[in-house]
Design brief:
Elements lengths: L7 H20 L3 H22 L4 H7 L7 H36 L2 H6 L8 H16 L2 E6 L2 E6 L8 H25 L4
Antiparallel strand pairs: 1-2
Helix pairs in contact: 1-2, 1-4, 4-6
């Protein structure tokens, strides 16, 4: 793909993918893979620097002709570069939070949040629900909610456009847990 055909969104996705994959390779002792991913990450960063430049600036930048740039153009370019950096930083925080959430789910977070069975539930059904969530988390799957339908995707495959669907799925889970807790509290003898 030519640099002129790559959008900043594509760059952000590639950059985050390279960063996350590199972290995974290092964390799991995959040295050869980490070396390859470091090279890919460097290439993505160079490509990103080119994308941040306005069209036609690629050659001029390499020739050091920035001094001919107007003040307005320089401010605009700086704002664009800051926007790209801000988006990359926000995306990295989002992905890190998703990985933290996966670890908590793998450790049985849902079981701790659910507590005791409520009326009409069995311990076995609750156990299956908790184990299903742990199994999904071990597979790296997170829920996405679009148009009232739930789907699942691996964290490594998430894109910026998935953030609203991911937030909707989390809101649904939080609401369900809160309603369940409220029902449990309502039937508790001390309530």
């Amino acid at each position: 793909m030519e640099p002129s055909h790559i959008t900043p969104e594509d760059f952000v996705g590639r950059s985050v993918w390279a960063e996350v994959s590199l972290g995974y390779a290092r964390e799991h002792g995959r040295r050869k893979l980490a070396l390859l991913l470091e090279a890919v990450k460097d290439d993505v960063e160079i490509e990103g620097a080119l994308i941040a430049l306005p069209p036609g600036e690629h050659l001029r930048a390499s020739e050091g002709a920035r001094s001919a740039e107007s003040e307005d153009d320089a401010r605009r370019r700086k704002r664009e570069e800051e926007n790209v950096r801000d988006r990359i930083a926000a995306w990295k925080l989002f992905v890190e939070a998703e990985f933290r959430g996966l670890r908590l789910r793998q450790e049985g977070q849902l079981g701790r949040l659910l507590g005791e069975p409520v009326a009409g539930e069995t311990s076995a059904a609750l156990g299956r629900l908790v184990e299903g969530d742990r199994r999904q988390a071990r597979s790296g799957l997170v829920a996405l909610m679009r148009h009232g339908k739930t789907s699942y995707r691996r964290v490594e495959e998430l894109r910026e456009g998935d953030v609203p669907a991911r937030a909707a799925a989390e809101r649904l889970r939080t609401t369900w847990l809160k309603e369940r807790r409220d029902a449990w509290l309502a039937r508790s003898p001390g309530a």
